[in-house]
Fold this sequence. Notes:
There is one protein chain. By secondary structure, this protein is of the alpha+beta class. It folds into four domains: about 90 residues, no CATH class; about 280 residues, Alkaline Phosphatase, subunit A (3-Layer(aba) Sandwich); about 140 residues, no CATH class; about 150 residues, no CATH class. The protein contains 17 helices and 37 strands. Helix 1 runs antiparallel to helix 2 and helix 11 runs antiparallel to helix 12. The longest helix is centred in the N-terminal third of the chain and has 35 residues. The relative contact order is 0.16.
Amino acid sequence: xxxxxxxxxxxxxxxxxxxxxxxxxxxxxxxxxxxxxxxxxxxxxxxxxxxxxxxxxxxxxxxxxxxxxxxxxxxxxxxxxxxxxxxxxxxxxxxxxxxxxxxxxxxxxxxxxxxxxxxxxxxxxxxxxxxxxxxxxxxxxxxxxxxxxxxxxxxxxxxxxxxxxxxxxxxxxxxxxxxxxxxxxxxxxxxxxxxxxxxxxxxxxxxxxxxxxxxxxxxxxxxxxxxxxxxxxxxxxxxxxxxxxxxxxxxxxxxxxxxxxxxxxxxxxxxxxxxxxxxxxxxxxxxxxxxxxxxxxxxxxxxxxxxxxxxxxxxxxxxxxxxxxxxxxxxxxxxxxxxxxxxxxxxxxxxxxxxxxxxxxxxxxxxxxxxxxxxxxxxxxxxxxxxxxxxxxxxxxxxxxxxxxxxxxxxxxxxxxxxxxxxxxxxxxxxxxxxxxxxxxxxxxxxxxxxxxxxxxxxxxxxxxxxxxxxxxxxxxxxxxxxxxxxxxxxxxxxxxxxxxxxxxxxxxxxxxxxxxxxxxxxxxxxxxxxxxxxxxxxxxxxxxxxxxxxxxxxxxxxxxxxxxxxxxxxxxxxxxxxxxxxxxxxxxxxxxxxxxxxxxxxxxxxxxxxxxxxxxxxxxxxxxxxxxxxxxxxxxxxxxxxxxxxxxxxxxxxxxxxxxxxxxxxxxxxxxxxxxxxxxxxxxxxxxxxxxxxxxxxxxxxxxxxxxxx
Length: 711
């Protein structure tokens, strides 16, 4: 960044600080699940003002030091600009098949002109784990992410593995008002430095878009828009709202390991109008709490199959099965505090009954209630550049499709819309960045394979009673769309550029679910309380005083170890080793008698996979390597104990990658040939640093790959 530009930005920061001091009513923040709102104190504002002033005064010295480091790095650099296109879940087997059939000409040309290989993923092969290794160059024992969820060892309850949002430590009670005396704390639980932070220390610019596990955004010498694990405005990982006049559609919403789901509301039509309220975040400024709401009205025109939506002082005309644009929503908590979000409405039906689906309420990128970008104004800039866009970490509403709230058409349209939003960001960054790193991750490949994989297999259990033809080419079409994008990126490549296409893992079918907790119960290793409901979520029925092991999340088994878990009974040392062996021998090669297939290939000991690392013991004690077609069952992943160990998966979510990592490698395409026998995703960070002349830190467990710079 040029000195004049930096001075202008610091000056703007000072003016903004003054504006907040003079007009405190505009300051607001929302802190996510259960934590409520927090407004910065006057002291916090003045401290921020003083730090901004100090930064301005010391800028010349820091600029000279960083310029020296940058020149030193660039003298050794082998590349001027590196472009990394992440396609989540892009499968090497499908790529090879469709390249051979001529469907992916740009990827085929990239493989021929440069190189293409499988990319070893992480143990376990779960997106937040793999992307964390991509950015840090270390294994899970060093970056502290082993799954979407961690378990709280005190309560055995789930908590996000990626981030923590806590309300202010002190509050002031004034009547029914609860006044926060400080700001919220939003922490990224991922450990270790991302490669772009290290490059930033050498003044090498980076533009990082929607890479998973970047919430909250870290401060570095570049720009970043966060992705996976950004919550919605209600503090969940994605909760839809559905309104229907059909009592049959108002049922209990299930939960998933990712903490998603939604709620349904029964509404009535009076004089061709529906009146309802949209629930938002909890109001923690009020002692009695309560949910903030926005009323809305639907005016039905049945003759034209049209609906007029009136909300927040605006009106929107919608046809049946047609999305509204992103609608700005303002929730008023009182005391001048406002929380801003955006959502889209979709009329699912208008026959004898009416149905209206509302997406999870995304954080408004133009007025973010939580930090979702760095610098903070970057999301505002993007919203003005391309219009409003999805900010939710898991933006494609897979659970709404799983529960039948929306159908395949609605989900597909949502996914393609989000893909288009991201393309605009990506190519804007690419066209404006002449050096450094441009990285963007696209999720559509992953989400469509999760939800449409059954169309690749006519006999998939999820196809029973469902169409098997209409969406047969959806996954192929997304691969072709990404291939076309690869072609457009290559057209923009210049001398000195290096372009890579990567994925975090591959994909496979998810036909049968294995409930490991049921198996542990049958082996006498997990016990229930007397008369307990085994279907209770999150182990509420488990008697921990007699239980030795439990399965949690999508990847592993934990021992109820004394001194670690609050009610642990398994002694460290010999008893732990013996119990591990018992489980590994019992589950390794587990046979599915109904299908005459092996359900589990191997159970991996986390200590052997990750012998060292400060966070190793935060992960599962045993990692499960499921065979193709198998995965943790929906019930087992959330701590339910069912009657059968192995059951059919009949949900729309019919493809997955949370299996034996050896079966689902990712892809690595490169314009500069990369020669390595077994490249892994954690090798990319040290390789990227080396390409820019920066020595990888000693703690990185990834290896520097050999890149042919003559190509």
